[in-house]
Specification:
The chain has helices spanning about 25-50, 135-145, 155-165, 190-205, 230-235, 255-270; strands at about 1-5, 55-60, 75-80, 100, 125-130, 130, 150-155, 170-180, 185, 220-225, 240-245, 245-250. By secondary structure, it is α/β, with parallel strands linked by helices. Helix 1 packs parallel to helix 4 (about 190-205), helix 2 (about 135-145) packs parallel to helix 3 (about 155-165) and helix 2 (about 135-145) packs antiparallel against helix 6.
Length: about 280
């Protein structure tokens, strides 16, 4: 049994505001230990449940946040940027039986601690075929095309609720309860590590590959906080102006859909000006 862990940071234990997740800040240095604790607990739990191999794919910001030396020694870690499938890199090789979304968060424009989709700001909403789509939902559609089930989701309580919509069978662990985008009631790392380990042990039983799901084509729509970002996004072939501060595109599958999403967000990010956005 091989498990892939897609590890994001905004949904980690104790994380509540931007400095906690921005590389180079003192708070980020502190929260890296909390983030690593969550991920290592998931690794240990999956091995408790019978996994033979666990690969961690770093999925936050620089994708160089986890502390390798503090992880369960049985794990392997894929770290660094410029990966074909970004947050779920590794799922495409045909040897992954289940995937865990650890440290995840809710989508742009919704309630949740540090809620966003790919970009910290600028994007105010994302929809797939008219359904609001967090990073978790987007990534779940990608991995389904490889027959890989989402078996575990950790983050705040709103993230766990969101996961019921795209991975209803998955185990979930709320490490904090949402108060505002920058405030939460947090559990201690000792408690969350125990909860994540126990949930991962149970989730291992759900790690059974199924037939790939070919549900496309998919229409993806994004809404921005400024109209000039529409111009940046529509520089990508196939992306069209679809409404006030909105663009949309249709892809035959989510492999192409997520790659187009990456291209759009890269151009939009480059078009954002300091202070005014």
């Amino acid at each position: 049994m091989k498990i892939l862990i897609s590890a994001d940071m905004e949904g980690a234990t104790g994380v509540t505001w931007p400095a906690d997740v921005l590389p180079g800040t003192p708070q980020w240095e502190r929260c890296r230990h909390l983030f690593t604790s969550d991920v290592s607990a998931a690794v240990t739990g999956f091995f408790d449940g019978g996994a033979d191999e666990v690969l961690i794919n770093e999925a936050h910001w620089s994708m160089r946040n986890l502390l390798l030396e503090e992880l369960d020694e049985r794990a392997a870690m894929l770290t660094g940027k410029h990966k074909s499938l970004s947050m779920v890199e590794g799922v495409q090789h045909g040897d992954v039986d289940g995937i865990a979304f650890v440290g995840y968060h809710t989508g742009a424009g919704t309630e949740g601690v540090l809620a966003h989709t790919y970009l910290a700001n600028s994007i105010t909403g994302v929809w797939v075929d008219g359904v609001p789509a967090s990073e978790g939902r987007l990534n779940s559609l990608v991995v389904a095309e490889y027959g890989v089930p989402v078996v575990l989701v950790t983050g705040d309580d709103r993230t766990c609720e969101d996961a019921k919509g795209y991975a209803p069978e998955a185990r979930s662990v709320a490490v904090k309860d949402y108060v505002s985008r920058y405030a939460a009631v947090c559990r201690t790392p000792a408690r969350t590590a125990a909860d994540i380990r126990a949930a991962a042990r149970e989730a291992a039983a759900l790690a059974v590959r199924h037939e790939p799901v070919q549900a496309g084509p998919f229409t993806v729509e994004l809404e921005f906080d400024a109209e000039h970002l529409v111009g940046a996004a529509t520089a990508v072939p196939g992306v069209e102006h679809s409404g006030v501060r909105r663009v949309a595109y249709t892809s035959p599958d989510m492999y192409e859909g997520i790659r187009c999403f990456k291209a759009v967000t890269t151009l939009v990010s480059a078009a954002v000006e300091e202070q005014y956005g």
